[in-house]
Amino acid sequence: MSSVVSDIRPPLVMGNKTYHQITEDICSPTEELPNGKWVMLLLGALGLLAFGALALFVTIWFGIGSWYLNRTVGWGWDITNFVWWVGIGHAGTLISAILLLFRQKWRTGVNRAAEAMTIFAVICAALFPGIHMGRIWLAFFVFPYPNTRGPLWVNFNSPLLWDVFAISTYFTVSLLFWYMGLIPDFATIRDRAKGFRKRIYNFASFGWTGSAKHWQRWEAMALVLSGLATPLVLSVHTIVSFDFATSVVPGWHTTIFPPYFVAGAIFSGFAMVQTLMILTSIALPQLKDYITQQHIESMNKVIVLTGSIVGVAYLTELFIAWYSGYVYEQFAFYNRALGPYWWSYFAMMTCNVITPQFFWVKRLRRSVLVTFILSIVVNIGMWFERFVIIATTLHRDFLPSSWSYYSPSWVEVGVYLFTFGLFGVLYLIFMRVAPVVAIAEVKSILKSSGDQYCGENMHQHTTAEELSSEA
Amino acid sequence: MKQLNKTILYGLYTDEEVLMDAVRDIREEGNEIWDVFTPFPVHGLDPVLGLKESRLHIAGFVYGLFGALTAFGFMTWTLTRDWPIIFGGKPYFSAPSFIPITFEFTVLMAAVGMVVTFYLVCGLGPGVTNPYLDPRITDDHFCVAFDVTNMSEEQRQALEAKLLSTGACEQPKIKNI
């Protein structure tokens, strides 16, 4: 046995798999015709997309006044949704990059789907600042290109422009990283496919052969990209928090925002990964041996940690508001908790701070049902967090004469539903055309984390010596 | 499909540990291996096969440095030379606020540059079809391949025998690619 096997580490690949069985299990969803349930889900997602497209059309035709934004509350659901979707994306990069640097083997079961989630979530997020500009056909103005207006450059000192760079870099790097991992797996599908499918996967697999030198470079690149993506993912939500923190609005102008936003992003992102992975393993039962209770438990540990960090941040904010002795800051927080939007603050506190604490109990942490329900609760809570930060802070500013209240129109809700439709369509298509679990990476951990090598079924496997004597 | 105009003799193995021992054994006898193909990265194979460490990360550093200097230099030029504007009462050259974009652009250049370099040096790209030996290599078989273009029949047979004696799972094959 050349690979290191630990008796105390629980197995990550169940069912006494061989390499070939792994290929069969993970490739099969891309080779079968989709069932009725999948078609129904796709139609549902397309329905949301169609309704959302109408809302988008109204937005672009009449302007963002159709969202019922007003002079006091200039950022409503749109920026709330933007921050929420970007945050969700963070878990994918965390799983693929940070856990790779930490050599966490359980990442192999969920990294592919989580990275896909990242890419789709960032696409959904990028929509909101785009349409919030009002004239989306002039969106290219945000890039510093030589223009006939001077050339007049963009304001490089503005956190909103930092956001443009952060989000576009994040999207590009995530996409490159994800596709690099997909190439060997597309090659696996290519070598099993026939006819037209073979031609498609031949194109998509970039001519991958599996040469030892290519694998060496592939691993070297994965390592460096992880090293780059790790500070990148932390910087992205830091910069998103700068959109607020560099302003002079009480309740926003706080130095705690960057770490608190990053922890919140990882928190909500992992919750979304849980929701998606549980649904995926119900839809594709052949993946149950690869997305195990062990994976769910590991992610729940991250959720309880980051959820607690977020809780500490909320309490710190309240304390500092009181301790600062600054009445506007004190009012901002008083108004958050007890003002007209008290219900959103209450939802945020309950869903983000209290309910995730159930995960301290091992039995609940390992329960699929509890995890599924709590993961949705966390995502609702994190949406409310952004809503509290944005709308609740804005609606009562320095001048009581300009105080207002904001609730969204059907158009604004419709645009949010559009992103659900878009995310759903993209993820459903992804599930059918690409391996949802990284085939090559799962194979590479089989001998150290397969249940025939560690755990209860140990010693059931055929040893290398037996294999060679058979041959 | 690209043509290499080579005659390749290859044997397939079903386990990476057998493969590693085989590669070590084959190379100890002074045989030159053309390439080894595996369905997943086999750790520890590179030194056994005598592969030098990849220099891709050096390229990544250079691209990153290019990105950092370009972004910082460009922002400095626009805001101090080309069209100076005072923002928020701060100096034209307000270096701290250049840091976020400098960082993002460094990461972007390093990542894009490295990935493009990787595809170029490996000869991979959209729509490229490289010659391949056996479809099972991307599934569960490990392949050791020899370039036997200029070898005599006896040498080929010796290599065949070597592949079989080190645990190849089936009769080695010859393919012109």
UniProtKB/TrEMBL annotation, chain A:
Give the domain of life: Bacteria
Q: Where can this protein be found?
A: Cell membrane
A Pfam family matched by this chain, by name? NrfD
Where does this protein chiefly localize? membrane
Its placement in the membrane is given as: Multi-pass membrane protein
Transmembrane annotation, as ranges:
38-62, 82-102, 114-140, 160-182, 220-240, 260-282, 302-322, 342-361, 368-394, 414-440
Q: Which UniProt keywords apply?
A: Cell membrane, Membrane, Transmembrane, Transmembrane helix
Q: Which positions are tagged coiled coil?
A: none
Q: Does the keyword Membrane apply?
A: yes
User: Cellular component per GO?
Assistant: plasma membrane
Enumerate the InterPro entries for this protein. NrfD-like (IPR005614)
Family that this chain belongs to: Belongs to the NrfD family.
- In Swiss-Prot or TrEMBL terms, this protein is called Polysulfide reductase
Q: Which organism is it from?
A: Saprospira grandis DSM 2844
UniProtKB/TrEMBL annotation, chain B:
Q: Which Pfam families does the UniProt entry name for this protein?
A: ActD (PF11821)
Record's keyword terms, sorted: Membrane, Transmembrane, Transmembrane helix
Query: Which InterPro entries does this UniProt record tie to the protein?
Result: ActD (IPR021776)
Highest taxon of the lineage: Bacteria
- What residue ranges are annotated as transmembrane? 58-78, 98-121
- Protein name (record): Quinol:cytochrome c oxidoreductase membrane protein
Q: Which organism is it from?
A: Saprospira grandis DSM 2844
